C-alpha cells in the first residue's frame, strides 16, 4: 500500500495547494476590484470638478461679455449725444442763453439726485444705483463743461 498512500498524499497535497492558490487568487481579485472602484470614484470626482470649473468659467465669461456690451452701449450713446450737440448751430441770443444755463442746472440736478440716492438707498441697492448716478453726473460734468474751454481760431 505504500505506492497508493504516496499517490493519495500527492493528490491531497496537490489539491490543497490548488485550493490555496484559488483562495489567494480570489483575495487578490477582491483587492484589485476594490482598487479599480476607488480609481473610478476618484476619476469621476475629478471629472465632476473639471465640469464644474468649466461651467463657472463660462458663467464668468458671459458676465464679462454682458458688462462689456453695457459699457460699449453707454459710450456709443455718449458719442451720439456729443455728435448731436456739435451739430447744433448758432441761434438767437436767448436760445444760446437758455442753453448756457441748462448745462449747469442739469449738472447740479444730477449731483443732487446722486446725493439723494446715496442718502436714501439701502445698503444692498446702493452700490449699483450710486455707480450709475455717479457715472451720469461725472459724464455730464466733464462733457458739458469740458467743451466750454476757450476756442482756438483756425491755425494757419
Automatic annotation (TrEMBL):
Origin: domain of life: Bacteria
Keywords assigned: Membrane, Transmembrane, Transmembrane helix
Membrane-traversing stretches: 6-28, 101-121, 127-145
Name used for this protein in its record: Uncharacterized protein
Origin species: Henriciella algicola
Lineage: Bacteria, Pseudomonadati, Pseudomonadota, Alphaproteobacteria, Hyphomonadales
Amino acid at each position: 500500500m505504500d505506492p497508493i498512500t504516496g499517490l493519495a498524499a500527492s493528490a491531497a497535497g496537490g489539491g490543497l495547494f490548488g485550493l490555496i492558490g484559488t483562495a489567494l487568487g480570489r483575495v487578490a481579485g477582491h483587492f484589485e476590484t476594490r482598487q479599480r472602484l476607488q480609481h473610478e470614484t476618484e476619476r469621476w470626482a475629478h471629472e465632476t470638478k473639471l465640469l464644474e470649473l468649466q461651467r463657472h468659467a463660462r458663467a464668468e465669461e458671459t458676465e464679462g461679455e454682458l458688462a462689456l456690451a453695457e459699457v460699449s452701449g453707454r459710450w456709443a450713446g455718449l458719442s451720439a449725444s456729443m455728435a448731436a450737440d456739435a451739430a447744433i448751430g448758432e441761434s438767437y441770443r436767448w436760445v444760446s442763453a437758455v442753453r448756457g444755463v441748462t448745462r449747469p442746472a442739469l449738472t447740479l440736478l444730477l449731483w443732487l439726485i446722486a446725493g439723494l440716492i446715496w442718502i436714501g438707498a439701502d445698503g444692498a441697492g446702493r452700490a449699483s444705483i450710486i455707480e450709475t448716478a455717479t457715472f451720469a453726473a461725472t459724464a455730464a460734468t466733464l462733457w458739458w463743461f469740458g467743451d466750454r474751454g476757450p476756442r482756438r481760431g483756425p491755425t494757419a
